[in-house]
Each structure stands twice: as C-alpha cells, then as structure tokens.
Predict the 3D structure of the following.
Amino acid sequence: MYFLFVSNDIEVVRSFEDVLHLADAKKALITVSNGYDLIDYLQNVKRGESYPDLIVLTPDFLRISGTDLLELLKTDDLYRLIPVLMLLPDDNSHHEAVCTRLGSEFIPVPRNKTEWEYAVNRMCSFCS
C-alpha cells in the first residue's frame, strides 16, 4: 500500500512522512513537488504495477493548480478511481466546492502533530 504526496512545501512533506512512518512503517510514500511530476509518475506506472492507494494534494503549485490537477485526475479514465485527498488552508470555500463537485475528500492542512496524526489516520481509512 502506498501514498503519492504532491506538495512543494518541504515542511508539510516532512511532517506527513514522520507521522505516516509512526502510524504504519509498512506504508510507502512517494513524493513529487508539482502536478506535472505527478502526471509523469502516473504515466510511467508499468503494466502490472499498481497505482497509488491514495494521492494527497495541496492546492497551490507554480505551474498547475491543485484544483486543475484534481479535475484532470477525476476526469481521466485511467486515474479517476484513485482516491484523492486535498489538504486545504483555512477559508477555502472555492477549493472545497471543486473537491465536492469532483468527488474528492478534503481536510484542513494540519498544523501540529496531533492534527497530523488525525489526518494520517483518516487517510489510511481511505485505503482500507
């Protein structure tokens, strides 16, 4: 079972890695820093290999927004069944509406270890 985490914020990635490892060392984590790297990664999954059990996105990237990336994933026949969770900053009703419309889960970006533990447990429940 593995997660694909898409974020250009090193601090967010490290926090997620730390808590994921404590929750279940058997879960693998692959990180990419932007949407183009995510698409490249998915396109290079070889026949017989599995897609990630969950993709975790943040909404803001330099070259493609997280919501545009989410729309691309959820409208593509190859990727639409991969669960996607968007980590949203506070007061983000626009992104929440896009997530809801496309059938993606979202949670606020965790700010401390307790919130990260809750978030990782919730993410793991999507893969069970």
